[in-house]
Amino acid sequence: MTALDIDFVRAQFPAFAEPSLQNQAFFENAGGSYACRQVIDRLTRFYTQRKVQPYAPYKASRLGGGEMDEARARLAALMGVATEELSFGPSTTQNTYVLAQAFRKFMKPGEAIIVTNQDHEANTGPWRRLAEEGIEIREWQIDPQTGHLDVAQLESLLDENVRLVCFPHCSNVVGEINPVPEITALAHAAGAFVCVDGVSYAPHGLPNVDDLGADIYLFSAYKTYGPHQGIMVIRKALGALLPNQAHYFNADTLYKRFTPAGPDHAQVAASAGMADYFEALAVQHGHAGTAAETGAFVHDLMRQHEITLLQPLLDAVKDRNDVRLLGPATAETRAPTVAIALNRPAEPVAAELSEYGIMAGGGDFYAVRALSAMGIDPNEGVLRMSFTHYTSQAEVAKLIEALDRVL
């Protein structure tokens, strides 16, 4: 496997040349990544040249609408799905809420949805609220020591009443990568659909949703080098079954069915810059192939670099007796989102790290249920250090040195 050209990567992100950010190592990427140059350039162009109502016959409008369509088509192709199966919304939280309203009408009282307590609240709260409509909510619970989701426990929760299984590709505090194809196969065998929250995974390589088998896959562009949009894949078979949530005259257009509000034209168009960036990475590293092959190549390129950088950080914290590492201690099985419990409030420690040029976060990160299940006081929270493929070895070394000073 080709090694990641970190100098090329960092040259694609204006933040690394920004004077106000010099000597600051960014380790709160799970809250939102830097935007790549290609996205920024497209956003600027749209606001300066295309900021008109799209899809009208005049040139600026045609170009604007074409760029919106381009973003949808190219991102869908990278993820191995049809263009109509990918849609944009204001955020993943709002996309999930709209989906929950569709399932509210689709399901009958007494039918069941399985959720986990490993999730960010955005992929559990909207579904849990359906209990008010008579829908049974079953909780697939994590191991209180490790945060692990045991697939065998899911099997015991599945029966003919379950219509939907909702779980994260990986948790934003536990970090362990869940076996999506295995979970999906189990759910489908029981007659249930699957909704995967990919917000904490997609920044580390866009998955091929067709290979995963998921019926719904959700992630956030602003955590994946793009603008503040939620991206939602709904496979056609399920999308046709669920009741339309948009204007009645948009019911026959799959990518509009579950986005009742008007899209942010500029941000949708700028999302094509994410595809520009992934394709530029592939070309720089000598890859040529179909869009789906390019998506897989870039995914593996990112993951290899992250795994190499992640293991030393895990080694630095896993055996300390003054902190508790959440999730696996092996880099291959997790995302580079590392949360540690300190037995004291985490936010002041994050503030101390900032004095050493480390940008990290402390808090509950909307994973209150997961922290509570693992015996961690959400009011104290955890210290979270998250990075992506644009992070350098020198920055990880700087973080480890700073941790030694503040812990």
Overall description:
With 407 residues, the chain is an alpha/beta fold. Helices cover 40% and strands 14% of the residues. The chain is built from 16 helices and 13 strands. The chain has a 7-stranded mixed β-sheet, with helices on both faces. Strands 9-10-13-12 form a 4-stranded antiparallel β-sheet. Strand 6, helix 8 and strand 7 (216-220) form a beta-alpha-beta unit. Helix 13 (291-318) runs parallel beside helix 16 (393-406). The longest helix has 28 residues, at 291-318. The two termini are 37 Å apart. 49% of the residues are buried. The model has no long low-confidence stretch (mean pLDDT 97).
What is the count of β-strands? Answer: 13
Mean pLDDT: 97
Number of helices: 16
Amount of helix = 40-55%
Structural class: alpha/beta
Q: Please write the string of helix (H) and strand (E) elements.
A: HEHHEHEHEHEHEHEEHHHHHEEHEEHEH
Low-pLDDT ranges: none
Shape by Cα distribution = globular
Strand content: 5-15%
Biggest β-sheet strands, sense, barrel: 7 strands, mixed
Radius of gyration: 21 Å
Q: Can you list the strand order of the major beta sheet?
A: 2-8-7-6-5-3-4
Distance between the termini: 37 Å
Q: Which helices and strands occur, and which strands form pairs?
A:
Layout: H1 6-11, E1 25-26, H2 37-49, H3 59-78, E2 86-89, H4 92-106, E3 112-116, H5 125-128, E4 136-140, H6 151-157, E5 162-168, H7 180-189, E6 193-197, H8 209-212, E7 216-220, E8 230-234, H9 236-241, H10 254-257, H11 265-270, H12 272-284, H13 291-318, E9 324-325, E10 337-341, H14 347-354, E11 358-359, E12 361-363, H15 368-373, E13 382-386, H16 393-406
